[in-house]
Amino acid sequence: MGLDVAGFHAEAEAAYIWLAANQNPDGSWFAGYHETGPSDRALDANFTAYIAVGLALHTRLHGETLAVQLWPTLERAIGFVRRLQRPTGEITWRVGSKIALLTGNCSIHHAVRLASALATALGRPRPAWDDTANRLRLAISCPGLFEPKPHSMDWYYPVLGSVFPETALAADWDRFVVPGLGVRCVHDQPWVTGGETSELALTLATRGRLAEATTLLRQVERLRHADGSFWTGYQFEDRVLWPQERTTWTAGAYLLAEAAVAGNPAVHAIFGETGI
Questions:
Q1: Of 169, 175, 209, 274, which shows the fewest CB atoms inside 10 Å?
Q2: Alpha carbon distance 35, 272 (integer Å)
Q3: Is residue 259 pLDDT above 90, yes or no?
Q4: Is the peptide bond between 243 and the residue preceding it cis, with omega within 30 degrees of 0?
Q5: Which among 124, 120, 15 has a CA at the least distance from the CA of 66?
């Protein structure tokens, strides 16, 4: 998605075609790959669902051709995710796990909503997908169904995933946002991260809070390396960059947030209040 909004459309399309070529028969993908093959054979629901968000954005930018081509891929992916939904509505983290994660379920809610909207746009409506998303939304509103985590993602993802309104951010704002530095990854650690800061900026920008989103993106710049990439985070008590890694997901989140601040209509449509 970061490649797409940055103008690297052929490269983005190649990534989706790679996903289609490497999808498992049950509709999933492995959690990690090296050039030679899978490096982590766990089967995660959130990773698998997220192709819907990418295809929805690509369709907004370039039309339906790729979505039509990858329709069987999308349908198998959503089928895999739906099979992991419990009677109480939440979706387990991965195959073989009894744990359900709040951030992951909010992301899946967003993905399944977009998958359903895309299916309707292609003339292939899937009302059962809406039922999955509705049951999941109700589950997210119920305390006690999810593994507790101290991460800021559990704070802003219910908003980014179009489950809770933007006003829900107010309750824990001071717990996670460090003025002048960015967003903590974990509420009790002196560590701000570029990915979380960018994702909150994306959330804010697509809900009309452009000034705050712009401020957060400026704070991510302290993490920028000379080659254009970003360090993962900054430990502000020790005043050190940590860990010593520069990740593509941080760069991707930054590119999406930057596009949102710039008013990219496709990004606003996909990540806005309704997420459709």
A1: 274
A2: 35
A3: yes
A4: yes
A5: 15
- Read off the pLDDT of residues 45-64 as tens digits, 9 standing for 90 and up: 999 999 999 999 999 999 99
CA 101, CA 134: separation in Å to the nearest integer? 17
Q: Are strands 177-178 and 191-193 parallel, antiparallel or unpaired?
A: unpaired
Instruction: Give the chain's mean pLDDT.
Output: 97
Instruction: Summarize the confidence of residues 227-253 as an average pLDDT.
Output: 97
Q: How far is CA 172 from CA 87, 128, 151, 156, 168, in A?
A: 30, 34, 11, 9, 8
Tokens 């993490």 correspond to 223
pLDDT of residue 271 exceeding 80: yes
The CA distance from 79 to 100, in Å, is: 18
Q: Which residues contact 199 (CB under 8 A, 6 or more apart)?
A: 153, 156, 157, 160, 253, 257
Rounded to an integer, what distance in angstroms lies between the CA atom of residue 3 and that of residue 168? 30
pTM as predicted: 0.97
Nearest to 74 by CA among 19, 142, 37: 19
- Rounded to an integer, what distance in angstroms lies between the CA atom of residue 57 and that of residue 180? 31
Neighbours of 89 (CB within 10 A): 20
Structural tokens at position 99: 């744990």
Tell me how far apart the alpha carbons of residues 266 and 256 are, in angstroms, rounded to a whole number: 10
DSSP E strand boundaries for 156-219: 177-178, 182-183, 191-193
Q: Which two tokens stand for residue 17?
A: 């075609």
